[in-house]
Amino acid sequence: MDIKIPRGTQDIKPGDAEKWQFVEQKAHEICARYNYKEIRTPVFEHTELFQRGVGETTDIVQKEMYTFTDLGDRSLTLRPEGTASVVRSFVENKLYGQAEQPVKLYYTGPMFRYERPQSGRMRQFVQFGIEALGSEDPAVDAEVMALAMDFYEELGLSGLKLVINSLGDQESRKAHREALVNHFEPRISEFCTDCQERLHTNPLRILDCKTDAAHELMHNAPSILDYLSEASTQYFEEVKSLLDEMGVAYVVDDTLVRGLDYYNSTAFEIMLEGEGFGAISTLSGGGRYNGLVEELGGPATPGIGFAMSIERLLMALESQGIELPVNAGLDVYMVTMGEAADRKGSVLLHQLRKAGLKADKDYLGRKPKAQFKDADRKQADITLILGDQELEAGVINVKYMASGEQEEVAIEQLAERLTGGY
Ligand code: HAM
């Protein structure tokens, strides 16, 4: 067959899928502890949601969206991220009116961006993200960052670096924006065409440019932290002091600019230091978006969240040689000899499975020796051996693989014996 998987996507095959299940289960667990509730939104939305939510000037909206027209002539887009969808749902379902506030939500699911694929950068990737809507307490900022760091640490990752910045409130941003324009404008012709455009649409994004990263004007560009209003400064100080007291280590980097337009106030990324993790060292990112709910038609409501991709998480774990405790092995493998025994074997397996055991057998008519090999390959803790003779006597041979011990058990009592603790 010459039809191949689309570029930038991957098949997650048995053997790897168990790792996905494991980390996804961990995500559910940590969200339960922090009291975030799961929300599921569609993988496609009206294109306008992302144009308005993520922002017209962002790379995502300008270059990376999977947009199509459906048969009803609507412009739809495969979601490039989760926040806009969650906020859309928050507004549409009037979650701002529910008794429990703030509204703390999480999600896992595929996102789509038409990017240049490379290690850690896919066109379809799975994000685990959280969003807390309805509170502007710095403790929520600290909580979101703590959850993200705890999640990685509990999985065994080390060398994590939490990088934080404040993008300020409207007043701070306006002052900073003017300073940036004044700084870059006289020499903007020395910058790439993207930056020339950004100068008037969103000058903050110039700081994020990879092409011009080495330009001398980048090094002494005005720092947002020098333009923060009194309120923004105090807010940022409180976030930092809470992180200090919680023992969550961080570094402040005033050049941290996020690639989505909705951010203000606290912004952060978690990086992985050290070799072996490829060119991309960012594991996750997030921040406050206090204007987004209003932008999408809801009442003024503050929000903060973050997202990570499971792909990058698994790459990071692998780069540090961390094996996840996934057990794909069987409890029981049934080896049969003879036609009648083989038939009975299938019926017995059904009973064992109903009793809660992970159990399997041969279905290819293999010789006993090959069946034992199959049992080994499937990492069975117990091998059952049933021949026509045993069947006649109403017994079955039970072999405990770890100890090598064997015993004969009445077929009638097999399920009970095996589930009664062995
Ligand atoms: P983002 O920085 O665009 O933010 O993406 C967050 C994370 O998604 C990245 O740090 C990375 O782990 C993963 N990611 C992004 N693009 C790719 C890709 N092409 N391949 C693999 N992984 C990728 C957001 O999406 C925001 N919605 C985060 C947020 C939530 N902010 C507030 N709430």
UniProtKB/TrEMBL annotation:
GO terms for molecular function: ATP binding; catalytic activity, acting on a protein; histidine-tRNA ligase activity; transferase activity. GO terms for cellular component: cytoplasm. One of its GO terms (biological process) is histidyl-tRNA aminoacylation. It is found in: Cytoplasm. Keywords: Aminoacyl-tRNA synthetase, ATP-binding, Cytoplasm, Ligase, Nucleotide-binding, Protein biosynthesis. CDD domains: HisRS-like_core (cd00773), HisRS_anticodon (cd00859). It holds the Pfam family tRNA-synt_His. Signal peptide: none annotated. Residues 1-325 form the Aminoacyl-transfer RNA synthetases class-II family profile domain. It comes from the Bacteria. Coiled coil: none annotated. InterPro entries: aa-tRNA-synth_II, aa-tRNA-synth_II/BPL/LPL, Anticodon-bd, Anticodon-bd_dom_sf, His-tRNA-ligase, HisRS-like_core, HisRS/HisZ, HisRS_anticodon. L-histidine binds at residues 81-83, 113, 127, 131, 258, 262-263. Its main location: cytoplasm. It is an enzyme of class 6 (ligase). It catalyses: tRNA(His) + L-histidine + ATP = L-histidyl-tRNA(His) + AMP + diphosphate + H(+). Its EC number is 6.1.1.21. Homodimer. Belongs to the class-II aminoacyl-tRNA synthetase family. This is Histidine--tRNA ligase. It comes from Salsuginibacillus halophilus.
